[in-house]
Amino acid sequence: MSANNELGEKVRSAAGVIHGVGDYIRFGAMGALNAIFNEKDTEQKNENAAEKGREELDEGWKKLQVHPHSADKEVVAEPTPVPADHVAVSPAK
Residue 23 belongs to what domain range? Predict the structure, then answer.
């Protein structure tokens, strides 16, 4: 895959993430309002649309990962040791 194709795929993936987030928030809020006002017919429709937005968000995010399988692995942050000469110590009073 050429660099231009890779860049284009990253841009499309980012657009999918943005679109998915927007749908997830918008339809999630609309579903909540439908639940408050007891509008069951449109509540399920909005919940389904919000779930589709969530799926689009997840799919786009997976495509943006640097390593194709990194989304499947648990990432654990290791603490970075701080050298003793970099630790700020207040003078004793």
Answer: 3-63
**For 9-54, how does the pLDDT look when each residue is reduced to its tens digit (9 = 90+)?**
889 999 999 999 999 999 999 999 999 999 888 988 999 999 999 9
Structure letter (DSSP) for residue 30: H
| Structural tokens at position 64 | 């943006």
The secondary structure of 6-28, three-state, reads: HHHHHHHHHHHHHHHHHHHHHHH
**Number of structural domains, the chain?**
1
User: Residue 59 in contact with residue 15, Cβ under 8 Å?
Assistant: no
Contact (CB, 8 A) for 17 and 64: yes
Query: Is 64 in a helix, a strand, or coil?
Result: helix
